[in-house]
Amino acid sequence: MPDISPITRVVVPGPTPDLSPDLSLVVSRPMSWDAIPGTMLPMSAASTPDPTLRPDIDWFDWHAPYGDPGSELSRRLQVVQGHIRRALSERAPGPIRVVSLCAGQGLDLIGVLADHPRRSDVSARLVELDPRNVAIAREGVAATGLSSVEVVAGDAAVTDAYAGAVPADLVLCCGVFGNVSDEDIAHTVATLPQLCAPDAVVVWTRHRAAPDATPQIRAWFADAGFEERGFDSGTPGVDGESFGVGCHVLRATPSPLRTGVRMFRFVRPGRARHLT
Ligand SMILES: C[S@@+](CC[C@H](N)C(=O)[O-])C[C@H]1O[C@@H](n2cnc3c(N)ncnc32)[C@H](O)[C@@H]1O
User: What atom of ligand 1 comes closest to residue 50's alpha carbon?
Assistant: First the structure.
C-alpha cells in the first residue's frame, strides 16, 4: 500500500480485507456491494454498470503512483488540486456543493479539504464503483473529519447518481475521458451543465497520447457554454504520455438535471493506459 500522506495530508489505511479485490466480480454481481456499509445508489436497470468496465485495469492498483510524489500522476494531482483550491476560495460566501464523477479514492478533493478555509461550507458527493476505492475514500473522509462529504458506491455515468447533490458549484471529472469513446466525451461534456450551478467550475483530465483529443474536448466545452480558465500539460518526455488538466467555468445558463441519462461507458482502448 503506498504512503500517500505527503501529497494528500490524509492518512489512508490499506484496503478492507473482506471486500472483493476483483472489480470484474463486483460488476458482474453488483449485489456483493451489500458488503459495503454506508450510502449506495439503488441498483436499477438504468444504473447497472456496464460489464465492459475495463476489466483490463485494476482500479485500486491504478492509484499506486500517487504514493510517489514525483510520479506523473502526483504532478497531475497537484494541478487538479490547485484548481480545486482556487474554485473553493473564489466561491461567494455560503454553502458550496461539489460532485466528483468516478472519484476513485477521492484524493483530489479530500486532500484540499483537509486544510481549506472553506471546508465547513462544502458538501460533496463522490461517486465511485470500485468498493476498495470507496472504502479508502470513506476512510479519508472520516480521517479528515469531513461530515458533509458522502462517498457513494455506484455508477457515476448515469445522471441519477447526482439527484439531490446538484446543482454543484464544483464538478470533478478526472480520470474519465481517457477511458471512454470520443462520442461519450462529447455527450458527457454536453450533459455537464445539468450538474452545474451558475458559474460552476469543472475540472477534468485527459492524457495527451496521440491522437491528442484535448483540443477537441476543449472545443466541446466551449460549445456547451463553458469558458476556459486553464489548461495544463505534463512535460513531454518527462511525463510519459503527458497529462492534460482542463478547468472550465460555466457561463451559459445551467440546465435542469434529467435523470435516467447515461453519459458514458468505460471501454477497452486496446492497451492499458496508465494515465487517464
Ligand atoms: C482513472 S481512475 C480516476 C480516479 C480519480 N478520479 C482520480 O483522478 O484519481 C477511474 C475511476 O473510475 C472508476 N469507475 C469506472 N467506471 C465507473 C463508473 N461507471 N462509475 C463510477 N466509477 C467508475 C474506477 O473504479 C476508477 O476508480
Answer: 19
Residue nearest to atom 19 of ligand 1 (CA): 155
Q: What is the pLDDT of residue 267?
A: 87
> Which of 80, 6, 23, 99 is closest to 57 using CA atoms?
23
- Report pLDDT digits (tens) over 74-84: 999 999 999 99
The alpha carbon torsion through 264, 266, 269, 271 (nearest 10 deg) reads 160
Return the domain boundaries, the chain. Answer: 5-250
Contacts of 205 (CB under 8 A, 6+ apart): 76, 80, 173, 174, 175, 176, 177, 178, 243, 244, 245, 246, 276
Put residue 57 in one of left, alpha, beta given phi > 0 → left and psi -120 to 50 → alpha.
Answer: beta
Ramachandran category for residue 38: left, alpha or beta (phi over 0 → left; psi -120 to 50 → alpha): left
Residue segments in the chain with a per-residue pLDDT below the cut of 70: 1-55, 236-241, 268-276
Q: Count Cα atoms within 13 angstroms, Cβ side, for 4.
A: 24
Residue 100 CA: nearest ligand 1 atom is 6
Position 270, amino acid:
G
Which CATH code fits 5-250?
A: 3.40.50.150
Candidate of 8, 129, 158, 274 to mutate for ligand 1, largest count of ligand atoms within 8 Å of Cβ: 129
pTM of model > 0.85: no
Tell whether ligand 1 has an atom less than 6 A from the beta carbon of residue 104.
yes
